[in-house]
Amino acid sequence: MVSRSVPRITDVAALAGVSIGTASKALNDTGQLRAETRERVRRAAEQLGFTPDGRGRALSSGRSFTVGMITTDSSGRFSIPIMRGAEDTLSAGEMALVLCDTRDDPLREQHYLRSLVSRRVDGIIVTGRRTEARAPIDVPIPVVYAFSPSTDPGDTSLVVDDHGGASSAVRHLRELGRSRLAHVTGPDTHQSALARAAATVEAAGDSLIGPPMHGEWSERWGRHAVDVLLRTHPELDAISCGSDQIARGVCDRLRELGRSVPDDVAVTGYDNWSVMALASRPPLTTVDLELEELGRRTAGHLLDAIGGSTHRGLLELPTRLVTRESTLGA
Amino acid sequence: MVSRSVPRITDVAALAGVSIGTASKALNDTGQLRAETRERVRRAAEQLGFTPDGRGRALSSGRSFTVGMITTDSSGRFSIPIMRGAEDTLSAGEMALVLCDTRDDPLREQHYLRSLVSRRVDGIIVTGRRTEARAPIDVPIPVVYAFSPSTDPGDTSLVVDDHGGASSAVRHLRELGRSRLAHVTGPDTHQSALARAAATVEAAGDSLIGPPMHGEWSERWGRHAVDVLLRTHPELDAISCGSDQIARGVCDRLRELGRSVPDDVAVTGYDNWSVMALASRPPLTTVDLELEELGRRTAGHLLDAIGGSTHRGLLELPTRLVTRESTLGA
DNA sequence: AAAGATTCAGAATACGTTTTCCTGCACGAC
DNA sequence: GTCGTGCAGGAAAACGTATTCTGAATCTTT
User: Fold this and answer.
1) pLDDT higher than threshold 90 for residue B218
2) Are B182 and B316 contained in the same domain?
3) Fewer Cβ in 10 A, N or C end of chain B?
4) Would strands B286-288 and B320-322 be described as parallel, antiparallel, or unpaired?
């Protein structure tokens, strides 16, 4: 009595004793049907273990119930949380996510774009690992940019509020009574480093000793920066860092030089990358980018765009300060 | 003269002055057509910027040119490289990958499975973040397990050769003349920790001082283990670790206690997780899991299975020892 | 009781492609 | 000159669903 292959809607209709049109309506809660008929069809579908064929559905409804996600962030450091958030929102609407990792190769990006267009995905999320604006993609499909905004202000982009994030770290340090701050961050060729540095300068005011220090996004640079800082400004009592990696290096070097964190020097990180922030000694007070929320909101905007109502422009999402022992002590 | 919507094969056929059947054959290199006709159709498609509609294609050909990837590894630590590898192999065949992160929730897994089946994906890759065998999934579609094998030996599973990996680290240490080895690894509830420990015991023989030490997969445990080891076995000259995190903790603590790595004690990690292995002081000699290759091979086997030829059973893929300063010095 | 309104469900069509089958047609062989 | 033979391309069916249109039956109203 086992059906040879997967059941089609025809089988359901036959079992329920109705036409396939009626079966379709019953299963989709559309059209005008008696409740009793609906129920009968539903039971037949249940009994057969029927799941509608997405291909037929896509073709007929004009929607593929699929969205593409294009990312240049091979490491997944940023795109994974965003993807998780997006999945949250999308899977509620029964939409699937196809992931395309371009690995920063324009050819690959072009290839994936063609593939997504040919699959007639309902929309595309574009993201990357840098906060720099990127060239928009040219497709006849709704697109939302996350993390890396589009250079075209007419596109929809959701980004993290780096200014607010850096400010919140500084405010936190000042509220703790620290008044001699240094800022150690990434390369001055990175938009995110520049934005965080500018916000830090603005929020710290007179409390900042010396200009922001730019270097690599690495623990090594954090350690080296501490050496430099203690030589030139031995009186400092707080260091806000542009990333958790830098902050971890800073903490390590301070400890090695006999300075207590946070008693002598309070340290803040940036990103709340748990691998770094929690493994650091002590664990880091840091700025969480709330990337999952960014992903959820991005997907929400994409669904809106697919539905026809587009909110154009750049949207900055708030960060969240996570306090731990590197500023609060044990 | 701009066509209103995306061009269909009908438009191509009309422009080339042939029927749609002929157009299809020309574009797919099937059927019997004059070379001249093929070329004409091809040019028409080019001119119109035609890309075949994946939905129609899927429906008609019976293949969706899509494979699903089910993972429990939310962090992406293991599944991202596997996915990249799989993408390599799949995108060559114009297949797309839809990613489903179950977050270890059986309900979510069930949901995604239904979704994938209903999309009629051509195959499914199942992976996770543990090396423990997992319950097989029940779908009428080819499935290949990667990293986490299926408990059913009749399924196709590709895993990492943990035994060989751990052995290679020990062999390396012994070739360097180390003869008093300790092994520090993760919880004895983890298959991977047990397998690596067993292989280490076997490969080290008399050189092993004391039984493998099980603890957390953390830097903290690595540091603590060093304290214990130096108290009970101050003469040790090498520590092989079950993960890069543990190894990094080990290195840190050894340095803090004035022991030189690798001069006094050589240290090996496991995983070649660059975040840990390269940031460690000194950088770690470690075992690379070759996860991208695992992904490529997995996808290859899946394509075979889709094509009809299944290689059943468990396949162990070799690891690769990466030597750095933690055993070789500067 | 008859006419109109309303409710329900079936028939038919559309979605865009692939694929099978079939029809001309030219060519060579007898 | 007729009959196969092989090739190029067209017509049509098929894939599985959603939707629109239409017709029949039932209910309401006067």
Assistant:
1) yes
2) no
3) N
4) antiparallel
